[in-house]
From TrEMBL:
Gene3D superfamilies: Aldolase class I
Catalytic activity from the UniProt record: 2-deoxy-D-ribose 5-phosphate = D-glyceraldehyde 3-phosphate + acetaldehyde
EC code: 4.1.2.4
Gene name in the database record: deoC
GO cellular component, one term: cytoplasm
Protein name: Deoxyribose-phosphate aldolase
UniProt keyword list: Cytoplasm, Lyase, Schiff base
Phylogenetic classification of the source organism: Bacteria, Pseudomonadati, Bacteroidota, Chitinophagia, Chitinophagales
Organism: Deminuibacter soli
Purpose of the protein: Catalyzes a reversible aldol reaction between acetaldehyde and D-glyceraldehyde 3-phosphate to generate 2-deoxy-D-ribose 5-phosphate.
Claim: Membrane is one of the keywords in the record: no
Length: 223
């Protein structure tokens, strides 16, 4: 399996340096990763470094906890697209979910999706599957599947549990065929990455991307 083509090479730590972004983009070119995922601050820089490479630039919205106001997420989204983001990884309002306020979540995506679609960008919705029940994951599949997002994404990498084969399989069973799955959080080895792909993931968010594709030991990292 050519795992590199599934990987969003990611750095989202709060102490990210310019040198880190240069390294991530260089790695992405060398290993031909699908995308890089960088903090909003560095979207413009990454877009410049990856110009004409075919590698997408992703960033995060409402990260990592998701409880920003819809208006704040909308402002983040617009700025990210102006700066050159191709893909938006948006954390849902988990407080709303845990309080069973599905109307809030529907309103949130209904405000964000048309703006992103108007610029023909890719939408990935992060649901934080590791802290959700199976029933909550299924409800997310129903809501965002109908909403017409491009990807449902397992995790931010900041919760106590990240991606799992079970969550990916559950999502695949309950999502429309046209909605893809991005697994992220705690993916450190080729073996685990391959399991997630076999379970139905078509993207992998990894900070240990180089270790995964080269078979070397993965160190600690965010995501």
């Amino acid at each position: 399996m050519q795992i590199n083509q599934y990987i969003d090479h990611t750095i989202l730590k709060p102490t990210t340096l310019i040198a880190d972004i240069e390294k991530v983009c260089s790695d992405a070119r060398h290993y031909k990763f699908a995308a890089v995922c960088v903090p909003p601050t560095f979207v413009r820089m990454a877009a410049g470094l990856l110009q004409n490479s075919g590698i997408k630039v992703a960033t995060v919205i409402g990260f990592p906890f998701g409880y920003s106001a819809v208006e704040a997420k909308l402002a983040e989204t617009v700025l990210a697209m102006v700066d050159g983001a191709d893909e938006l990884d948006i954390v849902i309002n988990l407080i709303a979910l845990k309080n069973n306020d599905w109307a809030y979540l529907a309103n949130e995506i209904n405000h964000l999706l048309p703006v992103i679609r108007s610029k023909e960008k890719v939408v990935k919705i992060i649901i934080e599957s590791g802290i959700l029940t199976d029933e909550e994951i299924i409800k997310c599949c129903e809501l965002y599947g109908v909403g017409g997002v491009d990807f449902l994404k397992t995790s931010t990498g900041y919760a106590e549990k990240g991606a799992s084969v079970h969550a990916v399989q559950l999502m695949r069973r309950h999502l429309p065929a046209n909605v893809q799955i991005k697994a992220s959080g705690g993916i450190k080895t080729y073996e685990f990455a391959a399991e997630l792909v076999e379970a139905g993931a078509t993207r992998l968010g990894c900070s240990a991307s180089v270790a995964i594709v080269t078979g070397s030991a993965a160190g600690a990292g965010f995501y």
